[in-house]
Design goal:
The chain has 459 residues and is an all-alpha fold. 57% of the residues lie in helices and 0% in strands.
């Protein structure tokens, strides 16, 4: 929530220091669904030559003539002979002369279909860490969390990369797909939140339409603010999705200038014109704050970052981080804290520099975190976090709220009171994650339905 969205009711009744501006990931980001391709059919030798359209011409070899053992060239040629079942069954190599065409069917195919690319575990890990950091911040309210790991800037950067990749397809289909993946989980979650607020004396007006399509902040009462205030992220993500076809077209006209100019809107709002004091103004602030990170995702996808000189990237990124940090600490009196989530300009520049370094390192050093697959439990956890990112983001605040009365009941059990650290926020943090896991199992299937997949308790 931007600084101008302060709500007179905003406070955390259960924890000290919670302010609620920094919110989860994309959360949601919705992960781009990789297109799967049928596996290339391989030729199996049953003792007769394949059809001409299945393979390239084979060198003519007499299968009855034994190959001299001392001549490796003749032995290799024999493995390509028609009828040599054992060589093919055992996967023997078939070296060819420099001017000899390879006989493998998939090499001879004039238009072979590529295999679906493996998931990028580097980006998946960043998204999982961002979600953990969001839950941590909303539990403890530590102002320094955003400086250690600016989750929202990272999430918008990852989402921009995936959006640029998706827009290789027709824009209308891409936007439709994104909306289909985002809105059903939001509607499912919103049904329970809206129902609970109605029970607690909330009577909405026409603004309830924002609970259908959150182009503006959905309304709510003070009783449910800790649940619905996180929706600023979904609203901002939705606007970026709708604007992406135009933004990507403009970016590709002049990549580096457009990337640098994407910081201008937040400077204008901060120093020249603060925008209207309404839902449109709130959306404008959040879009301006994270516009650079979103377009930075385009730059990564198009290879712009990889072509930049390391010294230029390092100087520019550190300068942006330095300015963002200086502005946050030098304006504590204006915002009451150095928390980046309360200071849009500081957030914009700190996130810009931080995410640029992460994206550039990924592109320049070709980091993929492939080693993660060797640790099955950790890799499985990262997979679940990414497949259930929207569920975790939407339900994590409700889990933290429910953790408080649950812990209160534990005080009535003498053994719990004696042996468990019931008064510790770390204990509430652990209980909160247990409840988040419950919500993943009970509600995560909605993301499968939205993605047109078979519903599963766990992905």
């Amino acid at each position: 929530m931007s600084w101008d969205q302060q709500n007179p009711y905003q406070h955390n009744p259960y924890q000290q220091g919670y302010n609620g501006y920094d919110h989860g990931p994309y959360a949601g980001q919705q992960q781009y669904a990789q297109q799967s391709y049928p596996q290339q059919q391989q030729y199996t030798d049953y003792g007769y030559p394949p059809a001409p359209e299945q393979t390239a011409p084979m060198p003519v070899v007499d299968p009855s003539a034994p190959a001299p053992e001392a001549d490796p060239t003749a032995a290799a040629a024999a493995t390509t002979a028609v009828g040599d079942r054992s060589a093919r069954r055992n996967g023997s190599a078939r070296p060819t002369a420099p001017d000899t065409e390879t006989t493998d069917a998939k090499d001879a195919d004039p238009d072979p279909r590529p295999k679906p690319p493996a998931r990028d575990r580097y980006f998946d890990t960043l998204r999982a860490v961002a979600l953990i950091r969001v839950v941590t911040y909303h539990t403890f309210g530590w102002a320094w969390c955003g400086m250690v790991f600016p989750s929202m800037g990272i999430m918008f950067g990852l989402a921009g990369t995936l959006m640029a990749k998706s827009l290789e397809r027709p824009a209308f289909k891409v936007v439709k797909s994104r909306l289909r993946r985002l809105l059903p989980p939001f509607w499912f979650w919103g049904f329970f939140v809206v129902l609970a607020m109605l029970i607690h004396d909330w009577m909405p007006g026409w603004e309830i339409v924002y609970w259908i399509v959150p182009l503006g902040d959905p309304p709510g009462n003070s009783w449910g603010i800790q649940a619905w205030e996180i929706l600023w992220y979904l609203r901002t993500y939705l606007w970026f999705v709708l604007l992406s076809p135009v933004l990507l077209w403009v970016f590709r006209k002049a990549p580096v200038p457009v990337l640098l100019l994407s910081l201008v809107p937040i400077l204008v709002l901060n120093f020249v014109w603060s925008g209207p004091d309404n839902r449109f103004g709130s959306a404008l602030w959040d879009l301006s704050t994270y516009l650079f990170c979103w377009i930075l995702g385009f730059a990564h996808r198009d290879g712009v970052l990889q072509r930049m000189k390391p010294a230029l990237v390092a100087v520019g990124s550190l300068a942006a981080i330095g300015y963002g940090g200086w502005y946050a600490f030098s304006h504590q009196a204006d915002f009451g804290t150095y928390d980046l989530d309360e200071n849009p300009l500081a957030q914009a520049f700190w996130s810009a520099g931080f995410v640029t370094l992460l994206m550039w390192a990924k592109a320049y050093f070709k980091i993929d975190f492939a080693w993660l697959t060797r640790y099955r439990k950790l890799d499985r956890t990262v997979t679940i976090f990414n497949a259930r990112a929207v569920t975790i983001y939407l339900w994590h605040e409700i889990a933290l709220v429910l953790a408080v009365p649950l812990i209160d009941q534990m005080w009535n059990v003498p053994a719990f009171e004696k042996w468990l650290p019931l008064e510790s926020q770390w204990f509430m943090f652990g209980v909160g994650w247990i409840l988040i896991a419950v919500f993943i199992v009970l509600c995560g299937w909605v993301e499968d339905v939205a993605a047109k997949k078979k519903p599963k308790l766990l992905p």
